């Protein structure tokens, strides 16, 4: 890949079975099958050093209290994405609250 070919990097996990609306099969990072360290390293190797977005489209997660979703997402983000990035944007996330982690999907 040439540098500059990736326009954005969005992270979520892939829910199985696929929802009736496939768009709604984008789950919480770390719940399913995506190898975030491997993919993030490939993205960085391709020259991408811009912000990373968390993009979750999952009806069950949407119905969970926002404070809990943000707390779980924050912990998952810090363990699955920034360790594999070589840029400063990965460390700007505010620490999560002390909400205990439970499955959100």
Task: Give the gist of this structure.
The protein has 105 residues and is an alpha+beta fold. The protein has helices at 36-45, 59-62, 66-80, and strands spanning 9-11, 13-14, 26-27, 52-54.
Written account of the structure:
This protein is α+β, with helices and mostly antiparallel strands. It has one domain (9-91). Helices cover 28% and strands 10% of the residues. The protein contains 3 helices and 4 strands; from the N terminus they run βββαβαα. The strands form 2 sheets. Strands 1-4 form a two-stranded parallel sheet. The longest helix is centred in the last third of the chain and has 15 residues, at 66-80. The chain is globular, with a radius of gyration of 14 Å.
Number of strands: 4
**Helix fraction?**
25-40%
- Residue-averaged pLDDT: 82
Strand content: 5-15%
What pattern of helices and strands is seen along the backbone?
A: EEEHEHH
Calculate Rg over CA atoms: 14 Å
Which segments are poorly predicted (pLDDT under 50) over 5 or more consecutive residues?
A: 87-100
User: What's the number of domains?
Assistant: 1
Shape: globular
- Record the strand order, biggest sheet: 1-4
| Major sheet | 2 strands, parallel
Structural class: alpha+beta
Number of helices: 3
Assembly state of the chains shown: single chain
Ends apart, CA distance between termini: 35 Å
Task: Name some characteristics of this structure.
single chain, 105 residues, two-stranded parallel ribbon, two-stranded antiparallel ribbon, 4 strands
């Amino acid at each position: 890949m040439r540098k500059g070919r990736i326009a954005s990097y969005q992270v979520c996990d892939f829910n199985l079975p696929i929802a009736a609306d496939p768009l709604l099969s984008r789950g919480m990072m770390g719940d399913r099958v995506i190898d975030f360290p491997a993919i993030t390293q490939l993205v960085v190797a391709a020259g991408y050093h811009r912000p990373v977005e968390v993009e979750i489209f999952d009806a069950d997660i949407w119905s969970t209290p926002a404070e809990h979703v943000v707390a779980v997402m924050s912990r998952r983000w810090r363990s699955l994405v920034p360790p594999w990035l070589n840029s400063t944007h990965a460390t700007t996330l505010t620490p999560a609250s002390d909400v205990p982690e439970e499955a959100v999907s």
